[in-house]
Amino acid sequence: MTNKIRTLDDLRRIREASTDLTSARSKGRASIVVGMGTCGIAAGAREVMTAALQELEKRNIHDVSVTTTGCIGMCQQEPLVDVIAPGMGRITYGLVTPEDMAAIVAEHIVNGHIVERLVIGRAD
Amino acid sequence: MPIFRSHILVCGGTGCSSSGSQDVQKVLRDEIAKRNLDKEILVVQTGCHGMCEMGPIVVVYPEGTFYCRVQASDVPELVGEHIVKGRPVQRLLYSVPEDASRVPFYKDIPFYGKQHRIALKNCGYINPDNIEEYIARGGYEGLGKALTSMTSAQVIDEVKASGLRGRGGGGFPTGLKWSFAAKSPGPKKYVICNADEGDPGAFMDRSLIEGDPHAIIEGMMIGAYAIGADEGYVYCRAEYPLAIERLKTAIAQAEEFGLMGTDVLGTGFNFTLHIKEGAGAFVCGEETALMGSIEGRRGMPMPRPPFPAVHGLWGKPTNINNVETWANVAQIIVNGGAWYASMGTEKSKGTKVFALTGKVKHTGLVEVPMGITLREIIFDIGGGILNDRKFKAVQIGGPSGGCLTEEHLDLPVSYESLTGAGAIMGSGGMVVMDEDNCMVDVAKFFLEFTQRESCGKCVPCREGTKHMLLLLEKITSGRGTMEDISTLEQLAEMVREMSLCGLGQTAPNPVITTLRYFRDEYEAHIRDKRCPSHACTALLRYEIDPETCKRCGLCAKNCPVSCISGSRQEPYRIDQEKCIRCGTCFQKCPFGAIGKN
Amino acid sequence: MSFSAQEMVEKTRKIVAPWKEKKGGLIPILQEVQKELGYISTEAMETISKELKIPKSEIYGVATFYAQFHLKPRGRHVVRVCRGTACHVRGSLAVLEKVKEITGIQENETTDDLRFTIEPVACLGACGLAPVMMVDSQTFGRLVPGKVQGILDTFR
Q1: Which of C26, C128, C142 lies closest to B364 in CB terms?
Q2: How high is the ipTM of this complex?
Q3: pLDDT tens profile A30-47
Q4: Taking the alpha carbons of B18, B23, B25, B26 in that order, is the dihedral positive or negative?
Q5: CATH code of the domain covering residue A89
Q6: Strand ranges (DSSP E) for B400-519?
Q7: Residue A102 falls within a domain, yes or no?
Q8: CA of residue B589 relative to chain centroid, distance
């Protein structure tokens, strides 16, 4: 790939393509938090996290952060995933499978619809 | 491009490297690979965060968790806990000295709270070896804007409107300087970046080049366009190998991307940039001496006029600015001169980077708006005096600067206010001193420096500084007379008035200000043969208190000149004639029976 | 590292060659010569003079003006204790004295076994870690005299 910049538009294009390089260093417009305590990992949280990253990549979404958190004490509901998006507060999903994760990204993050069947908690 | 859910930034600046950040980075990459996280976690080496004291510094994004003094052995825990389980490692978080509370996030640390980062915008945030990260942060937009939509006169007007002044010490208005070189006729002109940061106690230029080299390059290219130059030099100290390495990489990348070379952005603008390594001479920071050194001669200053803007490098019109000055240019062009001028005081606009060092709790680089008070810098950002001792003075501006005292703490910092108080802005070195620092010793320290670095071309500087130093040595060894003080004052005035260049003209400043604010200390050395701060060894007396002495004999055993005598029956005593005042006994005594006076 | 007079002349010639038609080469040449030979020998200075057609006095003047150049062979390891302001107020003199005591030499001197040379330096620009010293290209910060022996021991 040639990166020769010949015009101002070329520069802007490179800038556009490069934003991903540093976008993970800002909070992003929404964030997905995966519970990764010992019980979470045992219940399959790793696969859920991977599914989240793959779905975001597939959809070319670069402004959503994915982070991990420790055990929050509802081990029977693991894997637990929190999604924080503007205007929708903090939604906690329980017993999330990798397939559910893809649906959460599609519905909650992209379309703005909370996936009600998986919700186990809400906070502002 | 794969999405990395987290970026781990490891500082690769000189400070953190010497505290072991290279090892940390290596072990971190291995650990990430071992746990198969290398597809989702990116390890990035950045430039200096400015808080070198706390290094090696590691920042984990997207949370922005700020870890201090991370060692290679901490890495498995950091990855296992934070990266895998999302639990920050408490013991590595920044700890507030006042109440030992832990602060997890970068933005909440008091050291960064009052800062306003323009020149340092990208330092510690991007990988300096990757031009794309610079572009992602809006890099080369300023150059693009200047080349495609502004005339060179408009560029100069914008810089004039910003009120930007030379950050290397002189404080000369940058836009005005550019207009001189622009007006000089001739097809061949040069721009130079002065990176010969020689002031002891200043390291912002090194950090800027190491952390954000493209910002310097972009600034220089905008300057070249404004004055009509097509070639530039960066004159960098050889003592800064990492800065030179990063700059070389940055130049190569800019060329590869077509942002440097011929017909930049299709506008017909051409530019090439060379690096010249300095060879170790402080005087080369003076612009005419610097050009002499680039030409391969001894770096000796020339009388001005002619100014470099008319007759500079190889006799061609040349514009020289310091690293920090260049670092501000691109953002001024992008955001407008008025934006920059909205910060600061009436005559000193924008922000200035200071190297806060010495006896403060947090040493490091701080960028603050002009007009902030010394108290805010030293006590709010710097956290106050180390070990909660008493503030005595702050030396500002390096060997050309002066010492300010408690009464100046509420002085708003600007070029004018500092000069008025007897110091100078200089390159922005700020060395804080407590009651253990002797001001006569400090004056002597600076004189030793300027005396050694005097190039020897003009007599007032060469001979004057030598004799001032001899007088200071006489006073600190207890042989001074009151007359020496007035001789010192006369000499100081003479050297200031008569020297050829800035080095000589400002060399007496440390003496003049310490005499002005700490005259009693000079007099104590002379009249009482006493150093009030117990710093001048020749005037020290170590004595053993016979009451407290437990007669263990440790002092006598460790004395290198065997001048301590005594026994189990007899308390120990020091023979003052033979004592060389090394202080070994003072350190070794387990009972605190030895006094220093 | 020691070279015969003939080798020094040849090495210097090679270094000078690309600069013959260009201006501003003297300092980069001296830097390169020092890197190659370890110091600026008389033979090297004479060769540069002949090749560039500039007087020996001028080369000597430049070589002695800059702190970086050395006219005598140096030790395998160069120790620089920072004497900058920030390091000074945090006790760098005691560190320097310790280095002198351990090596038995003064500033600008080299040990007889060519192991260490002590060089004065005004500031290493790592003021945040004061006091600082540099051995070859490694920087050591937050020093106290007691740490010096351990550091020097690692440089054989």
Answers
A1: C128
A2: 0.79
A3: 888 888 877 778 778 888
A4: positive
A5: 3.40.30.10
A6: 402-405, 429-434
A7: yes
A8: 38
